[in-house]
Amino acid sequence: MSRLIIISNRLPFSVERSGEEISLRQSSGGLISSLKSYFEKNTTDKFTERIWIGSCDLNTAEWKRTSDSIQGKDFTIEPVFIKKEIYENYYNGFANSTLWPLFHYFPSLVVYNKDFFNAYMESNRLFAEKTLEIMRPGDVVWIHDYHLLLVPQLIRNVDPAAVIGFFLHIPFPSYEIFRLLPTLWKRTLLQGILGADLIGFHTYDYVQHFIQSAKMVLEVDNQFNTINYNNRIIKTDLFPIGIDFDKFRNSCSNEKLSVHINDIKQSFAGKKIIFSVDRLDYTKGLTNRLKGYEDFLEQHPEWHEKVSFVFNIVPSRDLIPTYSDRKKMVEEKISTINGRFSTISWQPLMYRYNHLGFEELCTLYRAADIALITPLRDGMNLVAKEYVATNDKRGVLILSELTGAASELNEAILVNPTDSQAVADAIVMALTMPIEEQQSRMRLMQKRLYDYDVVRWVNDFLDQLYQAKNEQKKAIVKWLDTRAVSAIQHDFSLAERRCILLDYDGTLAPYAKVPSEAKPGKEVISMLADLAADERNEVVVISGRDSNTLDKWLGHLNINFVAEHGVFIKYKNQQWETQVALSSNWKDMVRPILELYVTRCSGSLIEEKKNTLTWHYRNTHPGLGFSRSRELLNNLLQMTGNTPIQVIDGNKVIEVRLMGVDKGNTALKIIDYFKSDFVLCLGDDTTDEDMFRIIRNKGYTVKVGPGTTAAEYTLSSQTEVVPLLKKFLDP
After folding, report:
1. Looking at the domain that runs over 482-580+662-726, which CATH code has it been given?
2. Which of these is catalytic: 503, 649, 662, 685?
C-alpha cells in the first residue's frame, strides 16, 4: 500500500492568536471538509498514511511549539514556510489578482505584474521541494487548485515516475480569455499542469477549454480527452466534486436544529424566506442579485411584507482593494433597497457579514423556502448542493447557469445572473411553485447528489489516476530493436496466412510539400512486388489517399488497397468496393471555411476526395500554419457538432469526412477476410492509431516516427521502413 500526499495552498487548520498565545483548529474549508468526510466514510482506506502539505502562517519556532495539537489526527502535517513578502505577491498577487479574475472571466480586473509571477514561481518551487523531500516510491501525489499550477511539472522534472494527480477547483477559461496572459506565463502554466498524469475539472466545458489552450500554446496532440505531450500520455476528465450528502441530509433529523428552525420561522411568521450565502467576491454577482431582488419588489408590490431575503456574506480577502470596494458597493445597494421598500414592521433584506458554523448554516438551509444562488461565474458551487441535500424534498433552488453545479442540478430554476429581470421572474416562479413540483424537482436532484457524493468523487479521481498511470506504462515507447525483429521474423516464418498492413504517406513514402509529388520510388515498388510474390502474403496498402491515386501509382502490383481510410476497399484482381453509402452534400458546408483558411494561410491547400476534404499546411510557415490549424480545428468542431461528420487532426493536415469508417475497423475486417494467422501493421499518423489500438493483441504494430502511440513498437524514421520490410523477403 502507498501513502497519499495532498498538496494545497493552505494546511487543513486555521491559526488563532490571542496575545502571545497561539492555537490551531481544524479548518472547515471545502477541500478539507470533503476529504475528511471521505476518510471518515470510506472504511477500505487504500493508503498507509495521509500527508497534507500546505503553507503556514507561523514561523518555524511557533510551529514547533503548537503543531502537536493537530498533528496526526486526520493527516500528517508538513508545512511550507514562505517569506511574508513572497507569499503576499504569490497569493494576493498572482494567484488572486491575476489568475482568479482571469479564470472567472473578469479580464478588466487582471493585474499583470512580473514580480507577482516571479513570486508565484518561487512559491511553487518551495511546495515542490517540500514534496520531493518526503516522497517515497509508490506515493500518490494529489495537487489542488490554481495556486499550484507549476508544482506537477516541478515534481516530474526530478521524479519522472511519480504518480501525480491535479485538480482545478475553479473554471478553466476559454482560450480567448486564457491567451490574454503573456506568452511566457501561458506556456509555463500549461507545462506545469501537464506534469500531472491526470488533470481533473468540474465540467466538460472546462476540460475542453484546457485542451484547446494546450493545443494552441504548446502544440500538443490529443485524442478525445487524452493529451500526448513530451512522449507522455496525460488524461483529462471531469469530476464534479460531491458533498457529504448524508451529513447534510441527517441534519433534517437533528432535534436541536429543529428548535432553531421553528424559532426562525416564528420570527418570519407569515413570510417566505429567501436565503443566500456567499464569500465576498466580485465573481459572486452580489450586486446583480440584489438588483434582481429589487426589480422583483418593484414589480410585485403584492409580495411586500410577505417575503424576506436573508443575505449572508462571508468575509474574504479583505486586504485586496477590489474586495473592500465590492463590500462597500454591496452595502450601499442593501441600504438603497431597504430604504425604498421597508416599512415599520417589515425589512425586505436581512444583511449579515459573518462566518456561519455548520449547524447555523443547515438551520438556514432548512428554514429557507428559496435559495437564491446566482454567481457570475463559479467553478462548482457547493452551497447549491448543500441546500438541496439539507431540504426535506421541498424548497426551490434558483441557480446561475454559469456555475459548474448547473450541469448537475438542472431541475433548479436556472437563470442568467446578469439578467435582473430573469432573476425577478425566477423569484416569482419559485414563490408560486406548487409543493408537488418542488418535491419532484428536489427528489431528482437529491438522487443525483446521493449517487455522486464526496466518496464517489475521490474514488473516481484516484481510480482514474491509477488507470492513467497504467496506460502510460503500456504506451512507453518500445524501439524495434534486433531482438524484436528476430521474434517477428520467427512468427512470420511459421505463419501460413500473413497480412501486412502498410500506411502510405509517412510510412512507405516520405511526406512531400504537395501531395501529388509523393510518388513511390523504385525501391518501394520492387519491395512490395517481392512481398506480394509469396502466395502466403497478403499485402495491403491502407491509406487516406483516394482510389484513383492508388491505382495510378501502385495498381499494377498484385496487392490489396484501402482508400480514404476505409471508404473503399479493393482486393487484388477485383474492383473497388464502397463500404459506406456516400453523400457529398456536407462538403458544400465545409468547403467554404477550408477555402477561407487557404486564403488566410499562404502555402496551404485543399485536397478533395470522394468522402474526404483535407486542408494541408505542411508547406506553410510552421508557426502560422499551426496557429491557423488550431483556429480551423476549433471552428470545424463547433460547426460539425451533432452531425455525422468527423474532424481529424492529422500530421500537418486536418481531414473532414463522414463518420462510420476508420482504419481500425477496416483493418480488422481485412484480417478476418483473409483469416490471417500473422499480422504486421506499420503507420505513422493519428489515423493509424485506430489500427494500432484495435489489432495490437492480434499482431505486431509499429509506429513510424517519435511520439506516444498505441503501437507495440516504434521505428525512429520513415527511412527505416523499407529495410525492415526487406527482412521479410525470402533469401
Report:
1. 3.40.50.1000
2. 503
